[in-house]
Amino acid sequence: MSEFLLGLRLLFGSGRGSRVRFLLMTLGGSLGVCCLALVLTIPSILGAHDGRSADRDPQVFAGKKSGRPTLVLQRSDPHGSKPFSRVFLARGEDGADVKPPPGLSELPAPGEVFVSPALHDQLRREPGLKGLLPGDEKGLIGPSGLTDPNELYAYVGTTKDRLGDDARALKSFGSEHPPTTAVEKSTLDILRFTLAALVLLPLGVFLSVCAKLSAASRNRRLAALRLLGLSTKGTQRVNAAETVVAAFLGALIGLAEFWLLNQIMARTGLPGLKWYPADGALSASTVAVCLIGCTALSWFVGRGSARAAATNPLSTRRTAAPRAPRVWGGLLLVTGLGIVVGYSATGLTDNPAQSTGINSLLVPGGVLLTGLGLVSVMPLLSYGIATRLARSGNLALSLAMRRNEVEPGSAMRVVTGLVLLVFSASLAQGVLVEEQQITRSDSPVQEYGLRLSQLSGEQQDKLRDIPAVRADAIVMDPRTDPTKEGGDWQAPALVATCAQLAKLVEHAAGCEEGKVLRLQDPNVSDSPIKTSAYAMKQRGGSGKRTSLKVKVPDATVLFDGYDVTNMPSPGLLVPPSALPAHTLPVAATLVLTSGSDPGTVRDVLDRIGAIAPTADVDPAGINIDGLQQITVIETLLALGMVMGLIIGVAAFLVSVTDRAVERRPQVTALSLIGARARTLRLVQCTQVVLPLAVGLLLALVAGKLAESAYLVTGGGETFWDGAGVPLLVAAMAGVLVLAVVGTMPLVGRRIDPELIRRD
Fold first, then answer.
1. What is the tens place of the pLDDT at every residue in 178-237?
2. What's the burial of 186, exposed, middle or buried (CB within 10 Å: 0-12/13-18/19+)?
3. How far is CA 302 from CA 223, 433, 653, in A?
4. Where are the beta strands (DSSP E) in 179-249?
5. Which residues are registered as beta bridge partners of 510?
6. Are the C-beta atoms of 477 and 588 separated by less than 8 Å?
7. pTM above 0.85, yes or no
8. CA distance 304 to 246
9. Shortest CA distance to 650 belongs to which of 205, 304, 278, 228?
10. How many C-beta atoms lie closer than 10 Å to residue 497's C-beta?
11. Do 417 and 411 touch, CB atoms closer than 8 A?
12. Torsion of Cα atoms, 592 then 596 then 600 then 606, to 10°
């Protein structure tokens, strides 16, 4: 305790410089703790989203329920890049025991609609959406029944006869697992790993930088205490007292900063991600990690930084020979690069590696070793460059390199944050490329499939008349089970004219109007077809059924379909005139096509919902949950990039400023013996920019290799992504310009000989 109190007395009694250093350490620690709390809170925000989704999930009875139970029907359609979900409820005589879902006090009666606040506002901007919600708005859904404040969700009260055959008897609301998650578990694990690389690695470096500010001055002060008779451990504890107090106060301020940031961000939201303030509340574990973890880290860093002065106080003299950095940091980098290069190389073979078995551990391990290697190799790299360039004939270069040769570890504190940011940015780019391969389609045409059994004749006519719809057709399912053993395989049939077929596919050849023809995409394997039969029913609901038998001709229409399409192949092309008069297929899909730009797709989906609000729409190729997830992932990665950038720039500015303050005696001495200010500025700039440039280049190469290893093992089609390289190169150039500008003002014009006497 006496050493702790001595450390505090030395802190507040050692002049203005010590107090400024303490303030920098506290503010720097608060910034790091705020970013750490944000990273630790993201899983709880996503978990709260998934928990409310599970609490409202309707549970139905298996099979048919006797009596007149409450019926439920769920529909979810894309609205732009967001899902628009509706739950249709028809009260039954046995529905008194069914508790209302979270967010509602009672089940909606027929004609009543309860909407989320975001949907309430959306209905004001887009009155056409009211067609999706047959009834009058009765009230709003409470926060406990919504995954987030921006969700488009509604409960619609209706009657049994309007729900159709797809409705099921409702048992209760709530399940153990959510039907959909904000981010899939496998993707969430990758996201956590990427955020750790983006934020936690630079954060550890930044906190170490804050704990080692003014290391030279403190070491001389500690060496004096040691020579006066203080024990080795006591000397280390004196130094740790300052870092512990600064870290603890910084952690408290950082938690307060996070609380304020959470209140602001929860109300304004981020692109694709919004949450309630309670979702981002600080948990006990987060507070413990921030307070205890960061304080403990500062304690060990403080003790470690004082070890040399405590064990060998004479080594702090200027004439003490510096010790060369150890090579273990280079071994970490070589090991990590060996792993990621090996997996990247498998992308050049016919059997690229997959993320299964031991590979699922080796790839993240290789990426982590590469990142840690970049951190630990900087002193060795700076020392190696300095020893080779220090013997050059250029005065400024020699002075700069001699200083880096004496203090190679300072390069790590100055440039590592920015180097890690470039490395992590490449890895984040790989995650985005992998997700985009899953969720986005490059097709110029968008198809929409609706089951014909869910549509009336009037609804079908209105759907065909939607202005943005380019073409329409019916795809009939065969009467017999195509998987049944024995007999010839029966193919689905496209009911369309040659003109309609030309609008539905990319290219077609061999079509003859008015004839039954075979349909075949050359890219799809063929199957033998002799005859096909299709069940038909009379229009008008009489219930009379007939069968349409089609003999398969030899003439074939070859067509090129789009990537995701409802066009059957192999199949049949049946002209509308071949169908029996006044009949409709029993099992068939109405296919509509439009342009694929987001505005057109959104308009068509809204109009489809207004015409047939309870029909199940299949927007071919649109993974609406995947689109929502990619938006969340992009937002979180962008947030991680911003935090990593803030941490990296803060570490750079704090380190450069601290180096300038620490080296004022040397700068003053050089000025007194005749060195010009321009030469001194060039020396300061070279000391920082040269290791930074080499580190950024190494980080770019290592980051692209790590990204390629991730893409190869991810199983996608893209292995080598060069789209992000120009942006990273531009960012590197901007960082170097910032480094040059940041070092220029650090050589003062006023010469103070008193600094030499103090030294």
1. 887 877 776 777 777 777 777 777 777 776 766 666 555 666 676 777 777 777 777 766
2. exposed
3. 14, 42, 21
4. none
5. none
6. yes
7. no
8. 16
9. 205
10. 17
11. no
12. 50
